Amino acid sequence: MIEKRTYSRIGLMGNPSDGFFGKTISSCITNFWATVRLTESKNLKIIPHREFDPTEFKSLYDLEEVSKRDGYYGGIRLIYATCKRFSKYCRENGICLKNGNYSITYDTNIPRQVGLGGSSAIIVSLLKALMKFYELDDKDIPLEIQPNLVLSVETEELGIKAGLQDRVIQSYGGTVYMDFNKEHMDKNGFGLYERLDFNLLPNLFIAYVEGSGKDSGKMHNEVRFRYNQGDREIIDAMSVFGTLAEEGKQVLEDGNIKHFGKLMSINFKLRRKIYGDKAIGKRNLEMIGIAEELGAPAKFPGSGGAIVGMYRDEEQLSLLRTKYTSKGFKFAEVSIHEVSLTRDNELVGIEFT
What we know:
This protein is of the alpha+beta class.
């Protein structure tokens, strides 16, 4: 049996400019994860998840409620599309795959559709498992190319609107500064990715709306349209988001945590300005409002449904927890995926599970 685990992710600075040739800082967090298992079998089987791919319901009303909560798509389509895309990539790049079949199962505890990278975590886990089964490594499918392969599963196979940020951080792990410079992307097919020391990060918390069930791609539709039409406000905003990430990296390296918090607040305010309150949603604004009320800088880690914020000490963390849970939100102290680095920002002694 082969099992691979991929952690949830939070966008700390610069998002949503990753889909607009911007710059971002993201981290994987060990609070939530997705796992995929391959078990040798006579035929290749994709086994539905008992909760996320239901085919049996207590009643017609139960079916309706499940579809409203979870939508019509579980993890099966992600597994199916990943296998197809992996096979196509290997064929087109002259990678010969050994014979053999397996049964694929998956599980995840990442809250669904709250902007924490749940879908991409399943795909990355399966890609890593397939590479392990077929005895491939980063020389066969370079690490910087793997996020592109994951993204193509969603955008080209499934028509899901997405950017590279989630796929990069979940393929690399740890904390990464990403520069999606257009010239570099056009020339090489991938961005400039630099690992950051997790010890530089502030104390973080997340709050989220359980079962919010929003498609992340829909939030970006209007902004994407305006960007493609050359709307100066959107183009300038994406440039500012990128500048915030660049400045955020510098202040982290300088140990100026307080200023990093100011940048987080600016990041959200700019996002609110260009997306509008209606698109952002009442409950999302309420979560941000609670953080502001208690003096905690906060922003979206993804496309909505969750926020990530900074806290000073245990006293403030306790106040935040009490306030969010009393309003019906889920709350957790963030646990960052720790990756040790050399001076050259290379991985040291780490084997991803």
